[in-house]
Amino acid sequence: MSFKIFFTWWNRQTLGTFLKTLIFGKFVGKDEFGNKYYKDKKDKRWVIYSKNIEATKITSDWFLWMHHTVDKIPVQSEKKYSWQKKHQENKTGSNESYKPTKIEKNDKLKKYETWK
User: Fold this and answer.
1) 30 belongs to a structural domain
2) CA–CA dist 69, 44 (Å, integer)
3) What domain range is 31 assigned to?
4) Would residue 65 count as lying in a domain?
5) 12-36 as b/e, with b when 16 or more CB fall inside 10 Å?
6) Read out DSSP for 38-98?
């Protein structure tokens, strides 16, 4: 384990989170991104991210569990509906973000105009 993981929050967890997870944390599950979910005896819930810390990597099932909306721990093998899309993290600010370039107006293709 690297020394910097204990002092920098951007490397998944700090020393405090590491100790809290080690002493009080009960592992409850792992999602498709490799994020690990824990809870303690008082039902406080937290996540240890697998790679970079990005809250939009939490799937909707685990989001509901984390915010005490549901108490059932999500299972990856649960069947999804055909209309449900695979979860994606927020791509805003990256090269993969959605960037509309043209709209149709008066049968011409024009670029978007900024608000004035």
Assistant:
1) yes
2) 13
3) 1-78
4) yes
5) bbeeebbebbeeebeeebebeeebb
6) EE-TT--EEEE-SSS--GGGS-HHHHHHHTTS--SPP-TTSPPPTTPPPP----TTSTTS-
How much is the pTM?
0.70
Instruction: Determine the straight-line distance between the first and last CA of the chain, rounded to whole angstroms.
Output: 53
At 95, which amino acid appears? N
115 part of a folded domain: no
Instruction: Tell me the three state secondary structure of residue 35.
Output: coil
DSSP state of 9: T
CA angle 32, 84, 96 (to 5 degrees): 65
Number of domains within the chain: 1
pLDDT, tens digit, for every residue of 27-59? 999 998 899 999 999 999 999 988 778 888 898
Which amino acid, 112?
Y
Query: What tokens does 54 get?
Result: 């990005």
